[in-house]
Design goal:
The complex is a heterodimer of chains A (108) and B (121).
Chain A lengths: L3 E4 L2 E4 L5 E7 L8 E6 L6 E5 L3 E2 L7 E6 L2 E6 L9 E6 L6 E2 L3 E5 L1
Parallel strand pairs in A: 2-11
Antiparallel strand pairs in A: 1-3, 3-8, 4-5, 4-9, 5-6, 7-8, 9-10, 9-11
Chain B lengths: L2 E5 L3 E2 L5 E8 L8 E6 L5 E7 L6 E3 L7 E6 L4 E6 L8 E8 L8 E4 L3 E5 L2
Parallel strand pairs in B: 2-11
Antiparallel strand pairs in B: 1-3, 3-8, 4-5, 4-9, 5-6, 7-8, 9-10, 9-11
The chains are: A mainly beta (108), B mainly beta (121).
Amino acid sequence: EIVLTQSPGTLSLSPGERATLSCRASQSVSGRHLAWYQQKPGQAPRLLIYGASSRATGIPDRFSGSGSGTDFTLTISRLEPEDFAVYHCQQYGSPPRTFGQGTKVEIK
Amino acid sequence: EVQLLEAGGDLAQPGGSLRLSCAASGFTFGTYAMSWVRQAPGKGLEWVSITNSGGDRTYYADSVKGRFTISRDNSKNTLYLQMNSLRAEDTALYSCARVQDCGGACPEDYWGRGTPVTVSS
């Protein structure tokens, strides 16, 4: 199975700053089938990005995804107060689907 | 509005069984693949299983293969997860999720809030 490693584990930033989250795969992710989710405490995950770079319906354009092969990035251009949460990457191109361990974006 | 409502979570003994259900509404259930995903307390997400729209193709995480069975009843708009030979490490919040219809391989796009499963003696 493909192992996804997210870094950093925690990112401490202030509102308005840029956040860059990394997701590295143990082997190439086929077809750029990489998604990013946002999860807040007590809530279900929310799909942000699929296909490595396509924004899901209703997702603000401050969220962007990039990458291919084994290295992927989620960028939040200017952090809003509601963006402080845990972010998960997932590969869905090769069964079994797998998730990274998550990156927590916290207020500095 | 897409809604997914899980039920059936409970306290179970090691080696025991539970059957989870997920009632879907707000979309044409029978045309979407569906997944189960779990999250142990304080841990990340772990994908468990997926079934296609017709229920005739299924995949499982290695950690549950041979013990869990995913199924669906499209006439009842309901997804199931039969969990046998439960272990302490199966303790988690179990959520069902709809797989996006994006053409080809697609991620999960809507999730339920989950039902808690605790395996302990």
